[in-house]
Write a structure and sequence with these properties.
The structure is a single chain. By secondary structure, the chain is mostly helical. The chain folds into 2 domains: 83 residues; 47 residues. The chain is 86% helix and 0% strand. It is elongated, with a radius of gyration of 54 Å.
């Protein structure tokens, strides 16, 4: 009896499996057709929405660029076309030109001063070379010769005193 009930149970399971496979085989073409239809209809809808968002973003960016350009033009106009109420001839361009000219003159004066200072430093270095004796001959050599001569004279006087010289 146990075998009979197991066989009946196996038969029932087999029948259910065959029914499920049959249902899947029946539903599969319908699902595949619906999937293909969804793939054909949804992306264009999504693309249209995405394109609309991109268009809005593009327009926003272009609007911001136009606003920035307008602000720049206004600022430039305000700065460079400003005129004094008391002296309409005094414009910002003229003021900037005058400042530039003064700075150029100051630069030329400073370059002249720099050349003069460089010349003085070179002269000082040349004098220091003479004093230090780094050059050929020069003041350092004269000082050394003078010191050596004085030392030799003192040594000679000592020798003469030792020999009895009284120093006329």
């Amino acid at each position: 009896m146990a075998i009979k009930s197991l066989e009946d149970e196996v038969q029932e399971l087999r029948r259910r499996i065959i029914s499920a496979v049959s249902n899947v085989n029946d539903i599969h073409p319908v699902l595949e057709r619906e999937l293909l239809e969804a793939l054909e209809t949804l992306p264009p809808l999504l693309d249209a929405e995405r394109e609309a968002r991109f268009d809005v973003l593009t327009m926003t960016i272009e609007t911001c660029l136009f606003k920035l350009s307008l602000m720049r033009a206004r600022a430039q106009n305000t700065l460079y076309n400003h005129r004094s109420a008391t002296n309409p001839e005094a414009t910002m361009v003229k003021a900037l030109t005058a400042v530039h000219r003064k700075l150029q003159q100051k630069k030329e004066v400073q370059q002249s001063e720099e050349r003069e200072l460089d010349r003085q430093i070179k002269e000082y270095e040349d004098v220091m070379k003479m004093v230090d004796g780094r050059g050929r001959g020069g003041f350092g050599q004269v000082v050394e010769d003078m010191v050596r001569t004085k030392k030799d004279i003192e040594e000679c006087r000592r020798d003469l005193r030792r020999l009895g010289w009284t120093g006329d």
